[in-house]
Backbone:
C-alpha cells in the first residue's frame, strides 16, 4: 500500500467540511453583501464537496461539519477589533445556515468562534475517539479557516490531505499560498477525483 492509500484509509480518515455557510458562500450573504467579495466560486465548489461527501458516506467514513458562529458575545477583544462590526454568522440567522449542503443525522457539527475548528476541544476528542489519523480538508476560506484548522490539526499530529478543488477563497493569491504551504511543509494536495479513486482502492484492499 502506498503512502496516499495509507493516508486515505476510510477507516482512519475523516472528511472535514469547513464553513460552507450562507454568509460565506451565498449571493446576499455577509461577505458578498457587506464586503463585496466575489463568491461565484462557491456553487462549483459545493458541488464537488457534495460529490466527495456522498462517496465518504457510502464508505462509512467519519464526516465532520464545522460551523462558524461569530456573535460578539463569543469573541475576544482582538477578533472584535479586527471585525469592526457585528453581523457575520449570527446565531439563528439565515447567514449561519449551511449553503446547499447539510449534515446527515448521524454526522457531527462542530461550532467554532474563531478561525481554527480545533479551538473547540470537542473536535480533537471526537476524532481521537474514532481512531482518526488523517484529515481530508474541504471548505472555505482556503487561506483563513481551512488554513488555520489544518495547521493546528498538523501540530496535533494528524496527517493533512487538502482537496484542491474542494477548497476556495475570494482571494486567489491566498488560496494558492495555502496550497503551496501544505505541499511544501504540511501534507498533501490532491484533486477530489484522485481522492475518490484512492478511497475506492483502499476499501477494495481492506475487504479482501
Residues:
Amino acid at each position: 500500500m502506498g503512502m496516499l492509500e495509507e493516508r486515505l484509509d476510510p477507516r482512519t480518515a475523516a472528511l472535514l467540511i469547513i464553513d460552507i455557510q450562507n454568509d460565506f458562500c451565498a449571493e446576499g450573504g455577509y461577505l458578498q453583501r457587506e464586503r463585496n467579495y466575489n463568491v461565484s466560486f462557491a456553487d462549483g465548489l459545493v458541488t464537488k464537496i457534495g460529490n466527495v461527501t456522498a462517496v465518504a458516506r457510502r464508505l462509512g467514513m467519519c464526516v465532520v461539519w464545522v460551523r462558524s458562529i461569530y456573535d460578539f458575545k463569543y469573541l475576544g477583544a482582538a477578533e472584535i477589533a479586527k471585525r469592526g462590526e457585528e453581523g457575520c454568522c449570527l446565531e439563528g440567522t439565515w447567514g449561519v445556515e449551511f449553503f446547499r449542503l447539510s449534515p446527515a443525522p448521524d454526522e457531527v457539527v462542530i461550532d467554532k468562534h474563531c478561525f481554527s475548528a480545533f479551538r473547540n476541544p470537542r473536535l480533537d476528542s471526537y476524532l481521537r475517539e474514532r481512531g482518526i489519523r488523517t484529515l481530508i480538508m474541504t471548505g472555505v476560506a482556503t487561506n483563513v479557516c481551512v488554513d488555520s484548522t489544518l495547521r493546528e490539526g498538523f501540530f496535533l499530529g494528524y496527517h493533512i490531505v487538502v482537496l484542491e478543488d474542494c477548497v476556495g477563497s475570494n482571494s486567489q493569491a491566498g488560496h494558492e499560498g495555502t496550497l503551496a504551504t501544505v505541499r511544501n511543509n504540511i501534507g498533501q494536495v490532491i484533486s477530489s477525483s484522485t481522492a475518490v479513486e484512492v478511497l475506492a482502492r483502499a476499501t477494495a484492499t481492506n475487504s479482501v
